[in-house]
Amino acid sequence: MTAFDPTPQKTVWDDSNESQTALSVTVNGKQVRTLVADRLLLSDFLRDDLGLTALKVACGEGACGACTIVIDGEPARSCTLLAVQTEGAEILTLEGLNAPQGLNPVQQIFQQHHALQCGYCTPGWLMTAYSMIKRSIHPDSTEVSQYLSGHICRCTGYRNIWTAVRRALGAANDGPVSGQE
Q: Per residue in 76-108, is it b (16+ CB within 10 Å) or e — as a string?
């Protein structure tokens, strides 16, 4: 993957007559200042303008979790937010979590526990797990099911994903957690 260039690229559907607003955000540690269409979704800004394609847009209404990123330390659905709503925010995408060489620790745990199927939903799961780790959520807490309830994987029965998330949170075994499956 090439290095992240925070310079927004003009997209083919830009309309010079459309209302635009100045946007200043920090994305994956880099300052981005640009004009964005007032109606531009954050997911489209990140994917199309900044080239950060790890986040996926599946349902387009925030129900599946594939577009989850971290905004100011909290997981958020980028397909339901306008880019202008993030003015001044710190945004973290999976590209910002990637280790310089190889996989980051959460990705390694997901790989070890076979929590990856097609991979379409995986970036959202990883970003939510990262947020939970940063908040020191206990692996046996009911908060785990609350954080993960908005994620859908169409390829699996979730057991391996739950195991990977719990291990990432420090669980010593694979026992069930309240609200699991």
A: bbbbbbbbbebeebebbbbbbbbeeeeeeebbe
* 4-18, 29-43, 69-83: range with lowest mean pLDDT: 4-18
Note whether residue 143 is domain-resident.
Answer: yes
Q: What is the pLDDT of residues 27-61, one digit of tens each?
A: 999 999 999 999 999 999 999 999 999 999 999 89
The dihedral over CA atoms of 39, 42, 48, 54, expressed in degrees to the nearest 10, equals -160
Domain that holds residue 25: 20-96
Q: Are residues 26 and 91 in the same domain?
A: yes
Read off the pLDDT of each residue in 133-143 and give the average, rounded to a whole number: 94
- Phi/psi for 9 (5° steps) reads -100, 140
Q: How many other β-carbons are positioned within 10 Å of the β-carbon of residue 7?
A: 12
Q: Minimal CA–CA distance to 64: which of 16, 121, 140?
A: 121
Q: Provide the angle, in degrees to the nearest 10, between the axes of the packed helices 159-168 and 105-112.
A: 140
Mean pLDDT along residues 67-88: 97
